[in-house]
Design goal:
Gyrase A, domain 2; 4-stranded antiparallel beta sheet; Alkaline Phosphatase, subunit A; 10-stranded mixed beta sheet; single chain; 2 domains; about 525 residues; alpha/beta; 21 strands
Length: about 525
């Protein structure tokens, strides 16, 4: 009997030890890579031009989810990245886009505009305080009592501020008008190596001025779109004016800039080499260049060059910190900015070009409400980002029911050609639940959202006639896949053919790091990584 009990104890002890040894160690370094508009189909199409140690390595050695889903309207890089890093939709984190409309001031401003803080190497006055919830980087700072280092590099200001969070050491972005690495005095640590990059004379600001973007390899190797009619090659000149850096930030040169400065800081700050884990956030651009179609040599060159930057980063991390000590997760912002270059003219005279004129909708709706509530007043404030803003102050002063005027306005707008459906803010907050209403509610914030959400039919082009600066946009319900990859930290390679929610990423990263999820994150960690 004693022998049996002893044997059972021994077996249980061995089993327990084996179970413990399979527990993944918490990473010493986390690198969050967000690739703006990364497309899964392009990763497949362009594989013949990739090296073995960049994208291919991530796809072959990482845990790869086929697609990511953002369950809210009017997606852009800012709202997407905020959702990834907070584990919550805009309804909670408050970031509906790069810019927001302040109805009380009738003014469009940066989503992170904050006059309290000055800029470093920029005139932008911004801070991350527009985020209403915590991020995974914030939670890491809290867990480590401020001892973990958190740095973010990105082409755009919103991308950088979101990924650094409110507690990060520093957020760096490329300024539109100087081309330098910029930051805000909200953060107290403008790391010296980044300042050195800005003063080097060989930085992005110097290189981009007058830069020419040409193919990085023989154009004959770019065979992914053989059915399209393309020029023999391409050549884009960045010029030397106020548009120079704005253009250059939509070329592969900006990704090289991100990688070079990030790798320098990784080494100099000795990230991943202390007791507390560190976090490095990187954002890259993989969208279209202005005036270039989705099917081009340019987009293939973007991916080829980015593949080399990914290879450079992986090799550096393997050499300095060790991939087994590092968790790398790669996400996409989703594909939201399709370039329909020639859609102003139909290539078939029998197929009309459908247009929705927001200025006409705005004017006609105002005339309709004037006929009901009084001609001496302006009832419609603005049609902005798929939303109609009514004159809330006037409605309140006239003691008119907000629900009533929203319902009348929605009924009128829903009759416009090209309008699929209209939802009022009252419906989103108080209406009966259904999946479509939930989708629009996720993208609603009471501080900055409008009174009506207007859903247009796919294929319609959004036009604003009086505004020459307005960027026309084609409405598309894209089914373009955007993968999510977890790599390093002893993660076993596997491909999972299912779509995950963007809100599941932050809880998963938090679980692997052994910290709390961001405070608005409701999802469980992804089961394959438990």
């Amino acid at each position: 009997m004693i022998r049996i009990i002893t044997s059972l104890v021994a077996v249980l002890t061995i089993t327990s030890v084996q179970a413990q040894t399979t527990v993944r160690e918490a990473p010493k370094l986390v690198i969050g890579i967000t690739i703006d508009q990364l497309r899964g189909d392009y990763l497949e199409l362009f594989q013949s031009t990739f090296s073995e140690r960049g994208f291919k390595r991530l796809l072959n050695e990482g845990l790869v989810y086929q697609n990511i889903k953002f369950d809210f309207p009017n997606l852009d890089d800012a709202s997407a990245i905020a959702t990834i890093y907070t584990g919550a939709p805009p309804f909670y984190h408050g970031i509906v886009g790069n810019k927001k409309y302040i109805a009380s001031k009738q003014q469009e401003v940066s989503a992170f505009s904050d006059p309290t803080y000055l800029g470093n190497y920029t005139e932008d006055k911004v801070s991350p305080l527009a985020l209403k919830t915590s991020t995974i980087t914030d939670e890491l700072k809290i867990a480590s009592q401020g001892n973990s280092d958190v740095y973010a590099f990105a082409p755009q200001v919103a991308q950088s501020l979101i990924t650094a969070g409110q507690r990060g050491n520093a957020a760096f972005w490329v300024d539109d008008y100087t081309g330098k690495w910029a930051s805000t005095t909200y953060y107290k640590n403008f790391y010296w190596s980044v300042d050195q990059d800005n003063r080097s004379g060989s930085d992005f600001a110097t290189k981009a001025w007058g830069m020419q973007w040409v193919p990085s390899q023989d154009i004959n190797t770019y065979k992914a779109f053989s059915y399209t009619k393309s020029a023999p090659s391409f050549q884009h000149f960045m010029g030397g004016d106020k548009q120079t850096y704005i253009l250059a930030k939509q070329t592969p040169a900006v990704n090289e800039n991100v990688i070079n400065s990030a790798i320098t800081l990784l080494s100099k700050a000795e990230l991943g080499k202390r007791t507390n884990p560190d976090f490095l956030s990187l954002t890259f651009y993989a969208g279209n260049f202005p005036g270039v179609s989705d099917y081009s040599y340019e987009i293939q060159d973007v991916y080829v060059r980015l593949d080399k930057e990914i290879e450079k980063l992986l090799d550096e991390v393997e050499k300095t910190v060790g991939l087994k000590n590092t968790l790398i997760f790669v996400t996409s912002t989703g594909y939201y900015n399709s370039a329909d270059i020639n859609s102003t003219e139909s290539d078939n005279s029998n197929i009309p070009v459908n247009k929705f004129f927001i200025n006409r909708c705005e004017a006609l709706l105002n005339m309709y409400l004037m006929a009901i509530y009084g001609r001496e007043n302006q009832w419609v404030d603005k049609f902005y980002n798929g939303q109609v803003y009514l004159n809330r102050e006037l409605i309140k002063n006239k003691n008119i029911s907000l629900q009533e005027i929203q319902d009348k306005a929605a009924e009128f707008v829903s009759e416009f050609t090209g309008v699929q459906e209209v939802y009022t803010s009252f419906q989103l907050q108080h209406g009966q639940w259904n999946p479509v209403m939930e989708y629009y509610k996720n993208g609603y914030t009471k501080e900055t959202s409008g009174d009506l959400f207007v859903e247009l039919q796919p294929g319609y082009k959004i036009v604003n006639e009086p505004d020459a600066s307005f960027k026309e946009k084609q409405v598309r319900n894209n089914a373009v896949v955007a993968p999510v990859i977890f790599f390093g930290n002893n993660i076993k390679p596997v491909r999972i053919k299912r779509t995950i929610k963007a809100t599941e990423i932050a809880p998963t990263v938090a679980y692997i790091m052994r910290i709390r999820s961001p405070n608005a994150a409701k999802e469980e960690p992804l089961s394959e990584l438990l």
